[in-house]
Amino acid sequence: MRIVCPFCGERELGEFTYLGDAKPQRPAPDAGEDAVYDYVYLRDNIAGVMGEHWYHGGGCRTWLKVTRNTLTHEISAVEPAAGAGAGQVVK
Amino acid sequence: MTSQPNRLPTNGLIDRSTALSFRFDGKNFLGFKGDTLASALVANGVKLVGRSFKYHRPRGILTAGSEEPNALVELRSGARREPNTKATTAELYEGLEAASQNRWPSLNFDVMSVNQLFAPIFVAGFYYKTFMWPAKFWEAIYEPAIRRAAGLGRAAGVSDPDHYDKAWAHCDVVIAGSGPSGLAAALAAARCGARVILCEEDFALGGRLLADGGTIDGLPAAEWVTRAVAELEAMPDVRIMTRTTLFGVYDGGTYGAIERVNDHLPAPPEHQVRQRLWRIVAKRCVVAAGAIERPIVFAGNDTPGVMMASAMRSYINRYAATPARRIALFTNNEDGWRTAETAIAAGLQVAAVIDARPDVSPAHRSLASKGGFPVLHGSVSSVDGGKNGVRKISVALTGGARAEVEADGLAVSGGWNPAVGLTSYHRGRPKWRDDIAAFVPDGAPPGMVAAGAANGAFGLGACLREGFEAGAAAARDAGRSGSTGSMPVADDEAFSITPLWHVAGKGKAFVDQQHDVTASDVELAQREGFQSVEHLKRYTTLGMATDQGKTSNVAGLAIMAAVSGKSIPETGTTICRPPYVPVAIGAFAGHHRDENFHATRLTPSHHWATEQGAVFVDTGLWKRAQWYPRAGEKDWLESVTREVKAVRSGVGFCDVSTLGKIDVHGPDAGAFLDRVYINAFSSLAVGKARYGLMLREDGIVYDDGTTSRLAEDHYFLTTTTAKAGLVMQHLEFCRQVLFPELDVHLTSVSDQWAQFSIAGPSARKLLQQIVDESEDLSNEGFPFMGAREVKLRGGLKARLFRISFSGELAFEISVPARYGEAMARNLMIAGEPFGVTPYGTEALGVMRIEKGHVAGPELNGTTTAGDLGLGKMMSTKKDFIGRVMAGREALVAPNRQVVVGIKPIDKARRLRSGAHIIPKGETPGPDNDQGYVTSVCFSPVLDQWIGLGLVERGRERIGEIVRAHDPLRGEDYDVELCNPVFYDPDGGRQRG
Ligand SMILES: [Zn+2]
Fold it and tell me: Of A52, B435, B741, B876, which sits most exposed with the smallest number of CB within 10 A?
């Protein structure tokens, strides 16, 4: 499998580390235990297209959101995380 | 040394000027350069080359390629002995040594061939049926016996002496196969300007053209091949790789190929690899892998001398070696007749052609009358012969009569199966084509297309056309727009086939010759309810040998279809998986074996430590000095104890550069650290260090370390050695994904700084010899937990931290990594008046246990901050990773196992890690297990073994006597639970 890193270009799988479902959002500090429990433990495991976190540790160290079909490994989109890269700070 | 009785006097693509001697089963033979082991054996009249897997039946050479099921040998000797090597692809070299397999004591007289008499117990599923009971017999009796009786060659049994390489290649178009389709594809793509890699598993280019010739563009095929190859070689972006099999296709247009770089030599030349594993990234792939001729299943079809018709042509035309003198041909298709033509052209006798089709073309009829041989309409029902080859062939004629043919060789053609492996590797299922009675690719993985015989186009003209068009399209798809020039042309031969898979008859008729699966095994499996082809495969083991059923799978399906009354496409195919040919595990490992299994990281002071005679320990990828033995010390404990005493009474130093080090910059650096650590860092004063603890989001402790504030917007964070990379990844996740609103940046500086711990009552005095005189190191000028940049004597800038892991007055000093070794040498020189002692990781560990500091054995992925006695560090004023989950009921339960000190009541007793803690008077067992000993050491200060443990309610039980129960070592002794800080509990020494 090959992933097109927005900073480094097309690179092979061995440079990346998989984390998983990119959908869960870390709850606000006051969201309560149930919300955090869901965030920590409940993950979608889709047979098909899903958004996933991948880390380009063997390259630019950017966390990527990769849209991948888990059945075919076809990658339809790769975006850097919101806080990736220098000077991309979201204010 | 025998002559080569079956070598034709002229022709063939062998180099007669280079004779090569070789040994097979201890006998000496001669062959020529350009031979395979199989062709050289054929030339020498050797028909019997092995015994079969289950029945130990005599077997000969069936094919001339990588689909060979029978002619498997042990090639080479000693450490290079490789079992199950196909004689049909092994290139002959001077001094080649090979031995047949599955025979004892010799190939001609094999004791195990009595297995044939017990054949009924070896039927389909025999493993499951015969050896099921009693269960304990399996390991003790059945399996060893089966392994001795069956099984293939013997592994070398010693380490592989050869090197293997791994390489990447990138191109526009990769082409599998250099037959007419592959060469045409390469020409078209390369002329368009595409970067082309052409892989050919043979050592010669041309595919079937090497054996079958033909006319292309008005030229003899061999001449056309020479011209085509010359044109390709002249182009800068074309790479032709012979002895290279494209064996697999992976996601994203990545292809696996194995290059047999030096297998054609007795041993790889010095500094060269034996094989190279290629990962080829290609925009497009043209599979021009050709087709595999398939056998027809009949009784005695495994007799030596029965050979595929196309293989016979290869031996005669390409290698000028005659497998037989009087040849019969059994065919169900037009193509098989070429073997009769070849035999006649070579001056051999044709005994008869047995054609299963109703009609034979006029051209072939006249060939028969000219050659003086009969054409028999019907099928071969059995072959009479033995280990010395074919003697007589029984023919069931159409209409019911019978005939017999005397011959010493039988060529068989049941039609051709396109090589659908590569196109089917992504769970693709080939589709059935009635007109050629074969499966062809039905689509392919993205970017791949099959052309020519691999796509079911069997005529030479069609192969050239399909290959050329596929090559041109691939180049266009890859963005190349050059001109293809003119397409090579050739006539198309007529092709007609009457499907025939199995001829009923008396005697064993083999479908899978390598695994000894017969037609009746397939029928039996079907009767026993194995309806799915995947079940059939596993129950009979059909197609599961090293040849992966290249000559047997389709026949097996066809027989299954016939008995179940279904069509072949209804019966379906099994899933194909890579690799297409066996690939040595060594090739996948490449250079990553033994000491190169993973990278080795050396600390900045490594070479100096080596000079000091340090003993090193592997810590992840690192080599760390474990202790520094001195002359006269009898064991490690004596050395370590000396090092600890030297630190506690004077001064020592230790390379701690393996800790992960991260620079955290930015106006929000403090806010960021507040969120990743349980304790606050935004409140840390500039010039101060603080111990920090990180949790995972589930509330369990992740890592710890000291983080210092060097400036308002600059922190220097350290991690444990083990988690250095993971913490960096985690912090980047926090920064980029969780908290993108924070203006903070992280830089890994683990490799940039060499860091040394300098500890002991004389640490300050030693350090004063190292740092510039202007630096104030007094307790007031640089108090405990101070952190700042300092100037060293000579002007070098360093980072200095007053932190202590040992419990002594201690500093850690960081210098740019390139000065690490110099720092170690200078500490030795400057420290001489103070008796400075380098210490290793063991002494470091002893002192941390004496001080009750937690480390890896306690930060074990199950403990909370509270378990470690650090619960009070958890800030209640801020949110941080893991805060909410750490508050869950079970993680704050009062009966959790928590860190406590442990010491044996008998001071002479050695405490052992892993011993379980059981209350006094209770029977050891899971119900009474209250924890275990996590870390132990011999404490020079207390002059006894001490340890840390995780014990239920441990902190409330200080002073209680419990049992340390150690069933693994057969020990059981009393220990006392105590304060984990064994040494200087009020911390006066480190603050002094
Ligand atoms: Zn990148």
Answer: B876
Q: Determine the topology of domain B299-414 in CATH.
A: FAD/NAD(P)-binding domain (3.50.50)
Residues of A with CB under 8 A from a CB of B: 1-2, 12-13, 17, 19, 26, 29, 32-33, 36-37, 39-41, 53, 55, 57, 61-63, 73-75, 80-84, 86, 88-91
DSSP string, A2-66: EEEETTTEEEEGGG-EEEEE----PPPTTS-HHHHHHHHH-----SSEEEEEEE-TTTT--EEEE
Ordered by start, the domain boundaries in chain B are: 1-161, 164-292+419-477, 299-414, 500-571, 601-657+753-848, 660-748, 892-992
Alpha carbon B626 to its chain centroid, in Å, reads 33
pLDDT per position as a tens digit, B809-865:
999 999 999 999 999 999 999 999 999 999 999 999 999 999 999 999 999 999 999
**Cβ pairs A/B, distance under 8 A:** 79
Which of B280, B746, B884, B892 is the mutation pick for testing A, counting most A CBs within 10 A? B884
pLDDT of residue A91: 42
Q: Say what the pTM is.
A: 0.91
Protein fold of B1-161: Ubiquitin-like (UB roll) (3.10.20)
Helix, strand, or coil here: B654? strand
What are the residues whose beta carbons fall under 8 Å from the beta carbon of B291, sequence distance 6 or more?
A: B416, B417, B418, B419, B438, B453, B454, B456, B458
Q: Does this chain's domain B164-292+419-477 share its CATH topology with B299-414?
A: yes
At B250, list the tokens: 């992976």
**pLDDT tens profile B759-785:** 999 999 999 999 999 999 999 999 999
The second-level CATH assignment, the architecture, of B892-992 is Beta Barrel (2.40)
B294-323 residue pLDDT tens: 999 999 999 999 999 999 999 999 999 999
**pLDDT mean across residues, chain B:** 94
pLDDT attached to residue B127: 59
**B26-61 pLDDT, tens digit each:** 999 999 999 999 999 999 999 999 888 888 899 999
Compute, in degrees rounded to 10, the torsion defined by CA atoms B816, B817, B822, B827.
80
Residue B146 pLDDT class (50, 70, 90 cuts): low
* Confidence band of A89 (pLDDT split at 50, 70, 90): very low
Which residues are registered as beta bridge partners of B440?
A: B431
End-to-end CA distance of chain A: 35
Q: Chain B interface residues facing chain A, Cβ-Cβ under 8 Å?
A: 250-254, 279, 281, 446, 697-698, 725, 728-729, 732-733, 735-743, 745, 879, 883-885, 887-888
| Inter-chain touch A81–B729, beta carbons under 8 Å | no
**Is domain B660-748 annotated with CATH 3.30.70.1400?**
yes
Kindly state the tokens that stand for B843.
């002494």
- Give CATH for domain B500-571: 1.10.10.1100
Per cent of chain B over pLDDT 70 is 95
Residues around ligand 1, an ion, CB closer than 5 A: A 5, 7-8, 56, 59-60
Q: Tell whether domain B164-292+419-477 is in CATH 3.50.50.60.
A: yes
Total count of residues recorded for chain B:
992
| Nearest residue, CB atoms, A53 vs list B725, B737, B884 | B737
The rounded distance, in Å, linking the Cα atoms of B191 and B237 is 10
Query: Which chain B residues are within 8 Å of A13, Cβ to Cβ?
Result: 252
Residue B497 structure tokens: 């086939």
Q: Which residue of A17, A75, A88 is in closest CB contact with B729?
A: A17
Compute the distance from residue B170 Cα to the ligand 1 centre, in Å: 19
Secondary-structure class of domain B601-657+753-848 per CATH: alpha beta
Is the pLDDT at B943 greater than 80, yes or no?
A: yes
Rounded mean pLDDT of B13-25? Answer: 97
Q: Provide the pLDDT for residue B108.
A: 74
